[in-house]
Amino acid sequence: MNTYEILSDRGFIFQVTDEEAIRKLFDRKRVTAYIGFDPTADSLHAGSLVPIMALANLQRSGHRPIALVGGGTGMVGDPSGKTETRKLLKVKDIQRNAEALKRQFSRFMSFDEDRALLLNNADWLADLNYIEFLRDIGKHFSVNRMLSAESIKMRLDQGLTFIEFNYMVLQSYDFYVLNRDYDCDLQMGGQDQWGNIVAGIDLTRRIAGREVYGMTFPLITNSAGEKFGKSVKGAVWLEAKKTSPYDYYQFFRNTMDDDVERYLGLFTFLPMDEVHTLGSLKPPLLNRAKEILAYEATLINHGKEEAVSAFQASIMKFGEADPSCTVETSSSIVDAVGGAAQSPSVAIERGVLYQGFTVLEAFVAAGLASSKGEARRLIRQGGAYINEMRVEDENQPITEQDFRGGALDLRAGKKRHMRLVLE
After folding, report:
1. What confidence score (pLDDT) does residue 77 get?
2. What are phi and psi of 99, to 5 degrees?
3. Domain ranges for the chain
4. φ, ψ dihedrals at 380, nearest 5°
5. CA-CA 20 to 30 A from 231: which of 155, 173, 267, 377?
């Protein structure tokens, strides 16, 4: 597929400057495209995942992404989408944050062998001569046209500082420099960046006489209208020290039903035919799609070990989605943690089996019951299973012969699974 069609099919495209020209551009050459990220914190958050995943999909299609850290523009503050002036950070804080963001980008794309570039606009903005910049670059900007930009108009009533008014000029200059030095033909960003992107296109055309293009992403909100990337605990961060892999997993696991298919397209690399299949499931089977979404999103950001651990911790606490739902998918959740056969496990010493080990003690040891009394009630209510056979006798002994391959599968109710493993 043409890369434009891939991005469109997965839900990334809101607006473009010239759809047909961009389609042809992707067919004609290896395209270099960039997105800017201001280092206002020492971690990106889930709200930044749309642009990051767009760059990752671009690279997977054979093109070259540029992740531009705004070490220079971060000293100014982007007024786009903000109702008040950003707090200006100290230079040392911006530099520290920029280094932290570089590490996070590497989880989503490879920077080896020129496959992607990680740049900092402080390299060309920090040492600009103000008078020369006004003369050579500022002359190409019309104040009337700048005032018509949505990001500027939204702030006029609340108040817009002169330094923020200059942000558009600096971002436009970024695009010109990246086109000049790195053959960058496409700038991408959130829909609130449209005015800045168009200004950069115009500046590049005026100075270099070259055609470049722009693309924006839709503002992602859930079906309740809430901005994506927020949870009951606040922002969902990509850094594990700020948001644990388990909480990151739970954020996606708690996706609203109407958002599952859209989020699978945006935040995983699963093929779109699988995305459509998963999104078409009806509750309660849709919960399996939510598990796959959460697992894949956590896998990309935190790695397989953390994704598996988060899944296992989740089913231990809340139970698993209906294990009878066997959806055909390329998600590695099938091999890594699929179904009760891969439930979390608890080790027990082989010797306890020779001391009169019963089903009551097995369910307590597995953590599926807090006491023998609770285990007894579970059995009497018909909710206790061993190796998928319902337990009828609460005094039933457990012997080594009950362990298959050294493991005993226990289930409480429909969803809570655990394995006992002999040491």
Report:
1. 60
2. -65, -40
3. 3-217, 230-330, 345-422
4. -65, -30
5. 155
Beta bridge partners of 189: 216
Both tokens assigned to 30: 């290896």
- Fold entry, domain 230-330: Tyrosyl-Transfer RNA Synthetase (1.10.240)
User: How far apart are the C-alpha atoms of 407 and 403, rounded to whole Å?
Assistant: 5
The pLDDT of residue 326 is above 60: no
Contact 84, 77 (CB under 8 A): no
Q: Taking a C-beta distance cutoff of 8 angstroms, is the pair 9, 272 a contact?
A: yes
Once rounded to an integer, what is the mean pLDDT over residues 250-272? 96
Q: Torsions phi, psi of 410, nearest 5?
A: -115, 145
| Length of the chain in terms of residues written | 423
- Residue 263 pLDDT grade (very low, low, confident, very high; cuts 50, 70, 90): very high
Residue 90 identity: K
Q: Tens digit of pLDDT for each residue in 278-315?
A: 999 888 889 989 999 999 999 999 999 999 999 988 88
pLDDT at 332 over 70: no
Indicate the fold that domain 345-422 takes in CATH. 3.10.290
Backbone angles phi, psi at 68, to 5 degrees: -100, 115
Which two three-digit tokens encode residue 31? 């395209």
| Tokens linked to 139 | 């002359």
CB-based contact 333:325 (threshold 8 Å): no
DSSP annotation string for 230-289: EETTEE-BSSTTTS-HHHHHHHHHT--GGGHHHHHHHH----HHHHHHHHT--TTTHHHH
Options 3.10.450.350, 3.40.50.300, 3.40.50.620, 2.70.50.60; CATH of 3-217 = 3.40.50.620
E-assigned strand segments in 256-414:
345-348, 384-386, 389-390, 407-412
